[in-house]
């Protein structure tokens, strides 16, 4: 590793003992100077006077230039933005985002102003995160200085290296994601961080999904950050509704708000607050299962993993897990990640022991350890050890129950959920997410909800990675048939779906056939529901920023 110059470093920057000449050819003194600035910010988070430079009324080409170098200002701002997830830090993150945007936009003096700004943000973000890899930091510092020139050739090469598409400078691209999560649900990024990353990727429209409820302060941070970066953001709330003996997910997106203040005022209305409190009960219900799954992991699963890998996996600490979840809603994704960290630490300890004992770095022993590291991803741990199917002794939260401790909001059907929401708000978007459900389920819900379902999520990247064989083509055909207004096409489609159910003859298919017969009887109504306002489609990644897939 490269010894970084400290406060009393010699004039000549140090280089690695091997390949020193090669390093001298790669990096110059300015690269080390930039890296030292970032290292100073990382090492001393509270730099006197720096906090004042995040104030929104100071121009980057004004007094800020005399107070501190631009690289220091950017590093300080991005650390504030990426650092704390505490609710009290939201105001600081917003200031940091505004300052960061101004720094990169006003410094990019080229025909690729926005693309240069996107690249600079991405590089400085990676530079801050690579604090344990000095050589990689030097490479990024060099790239940052090169990209700062704004030369089209260098900027385009940098965009390609960082897997960023070049976007039109007019900023009129159709780039969107209809389903993402932030750290206040099951994601990794704070609302401000999520918006910054969306802007770096070139996304102009974003739908941020919250499970069961959303806090007004979270909505405020999200919408403020979106307004700073010029991104259109919708906030959706996802609920589980009862359907055909299981759960079907529905996303409610309130509409009709022109200003941030109007939406925040809406969230504080008594009737809305009461509904969101019902959602909090559902979140607590889910949290109870996750904590029980943690106990089950400690009781048996960790030993099974240890036997497979030949390591001692320590028990998971519930209090440490609560700290790990932070401001989010406790989920299996959090637990999978937390367990993954414990398993990986045990495997890394074993690898270091093998190396210390003289094992061949390319030998079979270490290869087996690395194979286990790849295998035991958070998703694998969830599917093989933490899911309800792997813990039959626990109450399965994916199966509807009528126990007294089951929250009442989890007892609602899709139609009942829609009717409940319509009682206190009339302008809404309701998105039906498939999550393994087929065309027959969509047909039933569309007919029974009398056109209140406005969108169907025809593609979800997370679901596709879990099961690529799902019938996306059938759902797309269904939407086209419904919007055609042709009764013959609709009737043929419904009958084809019914024949497939008859051939399958699985559990619950008899009930579905009866309900599809009602759909045929309501053919005129189904056409009329979507005659004026066609059924629309949406697609999203369902990204949490925590998946290893």
Instruction: Please tally the helical runs, counting DSSP H or I stretches of 4 or more residues.
Output: 23
Tell me the overall shape. Answer: globular
Low-confidence stretches: 1-24
The total strand number stands at 7
Helix proportion range: 55-70%
Order of helices and strands: HHHHHHHHEHEHEEHHHHHHHEHEHHHHHE
Task: Report the mean per-residue pLDDT as an integer.
Answer: 85
> Main sheet: which strands, in order across?
1-2-3-4-5-6-7
State the secondary-structure class: alpha/beta
- Strand-residue proportion: 5-15%
Distance between the termini: 30 Å
Largest sheet: 7 strands, mixed
Radius of gyration: 27 Å
Could you give a short description of this structure?
55% of the residues lie in helices and 9% in strands. It is of the alpha/beta class and 549 residues long. It has a 7-stranded mixed beta sheet.
Question: Keyphrases for this structure?
Answer:
549 residues; alpha/beta; 7-stranded mixed sheet; 23 helices; disordered N terminus
Account of the protein in words:
The protein has 549 residues and is an alpha/beta fold. The protein has helices spanning 20-26, 29-43, 63-67, 70-82, 90-107, 113-129, 134-147, 152-161, 191-201, 216-229, 260-267, 270-309, 318-325, 332-356, 364-375, 378-386, 414-422, 439-448, 461-466, 472-484, 487-504, 509-521, 523-529; strands at residues 176-180, 205-211, 232-243, 246-254, 428-433, 455-460, 536-540. Helix 6 packs antiparallel against helix 7 and helix 12 runs parallel beside helix 14. The longest helix has 40 residues, at 270-309. It is globular. The model is unreliable at 1-24 (pLDDT under 50).
